[in-house]
Specification:
The protein is an all-alpha fold. It is built from 16 helices and no strands.
């Protein structure tokens, strides 16, 4: 219990420190980076709840981010603007307008409901079959967002979403996701799910209902991913289905894999590292293009470097930077050694 509390204090302190730094500096760019960081933390922690405890790689969760973003758009775009933003919207939704904060919570529930309906049969699968079907589910969700014009405006950019997400709101949601991820990991469901990850047959032999355990984790992960998508929608205010597909999936997965998918600490530290690297590399790209270092514009440097970094981590440290132990356990262990040596 003390180790878990220490983990929450340290990781929560990092989040608060990032937010305070952005407020003290007072530069709009840093405020935007800190807000993106907190939104990414919500998405990565949601993914860690399922992937870290079940051991199953999931591509589908960016699709649920899209569900949350489009759900909050439908619920919050002013009624007078819906005729332009969503000309084919169903009549019973045209007059609906919720407050952004309420819509964010409702959008997370919508994403969780969609996940609960479509995912249960898939939770019986393991290994390569589970990974392939999760990718197929991402394709299904992306295709639905691209062609369901009544709710998404099709492949075109949806505009008119109210600006409601600031760094404080994003930080509060990220802290809630952090507490939930730690609590789920230490719950009975989380422990049984990790037992099935390590030895599926042994876990089944002691009575673990593995599909149901995975389904619970998947739905909870979709809840926070949907909330993260809604936060992002109210931050960026206009988007298209392309924002919820392969490029973004790779970015979120790289944060979790580099930090360590099996620990909440890995999810948080990986998000900090990749966000800092992503913003730095994007700045370097811009400087190289302004200086005209090459005859052609430099495009894709950020993705290439992140891909190489993920490959290096998988080769050198397959479990990520924090493969098995949370930071609270590591600090407690170090403190205990110092007391014994003293």
């Amino acid at each position: 219990m003390k180790r878990n509390l220490l983990t929450l204090v340290v990781l929560g302190g990092l989040i608060l420190l990032a937010v305070l730094a952005s407020q003290i500096v007072g530069i709009r760019l840093y405020d935007r980076v800190a807000t993106n960081l907190c939104i990414s933390l919500t998405l990565v922690l949601g993914l860690q709840v399922f992937m870290g405890n079940s051991g199953i790689l999931s591509f589908a969760h960016m699709g649920f981010m899209g569900v949350g973003a489009y759900a909050t758009a439908v619920l919050t775009i002013p009624a007078q603007m819906k005729g332009m933003a969503l000309p084919d919207l169903y009549p019973f939704l045209q007059g609906v307008q919720l407050s952004p904060h309420l819509a964010i919570a409702v959008s997370g529930l919508v994403a969780a409901l969609v996940a609960a309906i479509v995912s249960y049969p898939l939770m019986r699968l393991s290994d390569a079959a589970a990974v392939i079907t999760s990718f197929a589910l991402l394709v299904v969700l992306y295709t639905a967002m691209t062609h369901w014009s009544a709710l998404t405006n099709g492949p075109r950019t949806l505009f008119g979403v109210p600006k409601a997400t600031d760094v404080k709101l994003a930080a509060v949601v990220a802290l809630l996701a952090l507490v939930t991820a730690v609590a789920f990991k230490e719950s009975r469901t989380g422990k049984l799910l990790r037992a099935s990850r390590d030895d599926e047959r042994a876990a089944a032999a002691i009575g673990a209902r593995i599909p149901q355990l995975r389904w619970r984790a998947f739905v909870l992960a979709a809840l926070f991913t949907g909330i993260g998508g809604a936060l992002w929608g109210h931050f960026i205010t206009s988007f298209s289905p392309r924002a919820f597909y392969l490029k973004e999936t790779f970015l979120i997965l790289s944060m979790l894999v580099i930090g360590g998918p099996n620990t909440v600490t890995g999810a948080v530290i990986g998000t900090f590292i990749v966000t800092a690297a992503f913003e730095s590399l994007r700045g370097i790209e811009g400087l190289m293009n302004e200086a005209k270092v090459t005859s052609e514009p430099v495009i894709g440097l950020t993705e290439i470097v992140l891909a190489l970094a993920m490959m290096a981590i998988l080769v050198l440290r397959p479990g990520g930077l924090f493969p098995t132990r949370e930071i609270g356990a590591l600090l407690s262990r170090r403190t205990g050694r110092q007391e014994k040596s003293g």
